[in-house]
Amino acid sequence: MSSTAAPEGWLRPNSVDEVVRAIKSAAENSTAIQLRGVVPADVPVQRRVTSLLMDDYKAVVDYPARDMTITVQAGLHVCELNRILAEEGQQLPIDCFNPAMGIGAVIASDESGPRRFGYGTLRDYVIGIEAVDGQGRIFHAGGRVVKNVAGYDLCRLLTGSRGALAAITQVTFRLKPRPVSSRLSVFTFADANKLQQALERLNTTEATPVILDFAVSEGTAELRIGVEGADASCDWQIEQLTADCQAEEVATEQNSIAQYCSSFGYRWSCPAVSVLPSQVATAARMLLKRGCVSVGHAGTGILYPSRISEVGEPRDAAIEVAAELGGSVTSWDHDHPACSNTPLTQRLLNTFDPHSVFHWKPSGAES
């Protein structure tokens, strides 16, 4: 079935037909398919699993650069996609912490990092998709042109589905021009109160940052702001942001955004607290009182708390804070779509995966 040798229990398909056969076999034999790269390798499952590794299915299907779209197979690594796009002065502005991650896994995980504030998330860039459902049926959604809006928006449905509905085999993205230059500035404040005041002033800034991140710990708080564009534009924006933030200390680095975004990482082990952007500093203070430092995206209202000490679980503190502020908490282990009991989710699972081929159960998830 595969062009590359794989360990026992693994399959490396190099065609969509091989994906179909693997899924049909799993359905017939009551086994499960785990899409490698979509879930952490150390998450246990409840029944015998075949791991599907798409690394050999990695061709560029179509790249009309003038149309600013590209169609690729799901196994193409992010680093290779970035290299191909850079040659044409283009980019897919999604920050994946693991450059060796396959495109299909990135979409299924809904991986997007610090630049989501300026560019949006993956759902804004997936315009066409091909996938195989739990019965081994190939289906398509969207198309290869930006204005194609016919039919149900399955592109958005599969983005972030974490492999619970189908195996993604091919994707079409819309693209953005690659910026000429960038700047990343770190603004340091005495505490979260000063950070909140700076965020309030930034509501009226004339700058257009693509990153608006923060970090709050005992005795200090930071805003990490990134801008992109021509050199003159970047310099002007940093001047504006410096005047608006009124920070105790400012450090700026040129063309360091890519390094920062790759180091931020998707925090598998951290719960994500979602609140209004105006509540970020308040939530950070409340988490600090509960023994948690936090980092996150101030512009989109997302905080990732972690314990200062090994006592207690950050999820408990996150749930308390979210409840008080009217927000929500999500985490990978507890909120996998396949473990949701809501009527809508169950209807989707029964439609796409009636034999529970993709319905593995993460540890810590409720029945």
Hey, roughly how much beta strand do the residues contain? 25-35%
Shape: globular
Distance between the termini: 35 Å
Sketch the major β-sheet. Answer: 8 strands, antiparallel
Number of helices: 11
* DSSP, total strands: 18
What is the CATH class name of the largest domain? Alpha Beta
Q: Mean pLDDT, rounded to whole units? A: 87
| Uncertain runs | 40-44, 362-367
Structural class by SSE content: alpha+beta
Order of helices and strands: EHEEEEHEHHEEHEEEHEEHEHEHEEHEH
Rg (C-alpha, Å): 22 Å
How many domains, as an integer? 2
What fold name goes in the CATH topology slot of the largest domain?
Answer: Uridine Diphospho-n-acetylenolpyruvylglucosamine Reductase, domain 3
Identify the CATH architecture of the largest domain: 2-Layer Sandwich
> What percentage of residues falls in helices of 4 or more residues?
25-40%
Strand order of the largest sheet: 14-11-13-12-16-17-15-18
**Oligomeric grouping of the chains:** single chain
Give the secondary structure arrangement, pairings included.
Layout: E1 10-11, H1 16-29, E2 32-35, E3 49-52, E4 60-62, E5 69-73, H2 78-86, E6 90-91, H3 103-109, H4 116-119, E7 126-133, E8 138-142, H5 154-158, E9 166-174, E10 176-177, E11 181-189, H6 192-202, E12 211-217, E13 220-229, H7 231-245, E14 249-254, H8 257-264, E15 272-274, H9 280-289, E16 292-297, E17 302-307, H10 314-325, E18 328-330, H11 343-352
Parallel strand pairs: 1-3, 2-3
Antiparallel strand pairs: 4-5, 5-9, 6-10, 7-8, 7-9, 11-13, 11-14, 12-13, 12-16, 15-17, 15-18, 16-17
Helix pairs in contact: 6-9
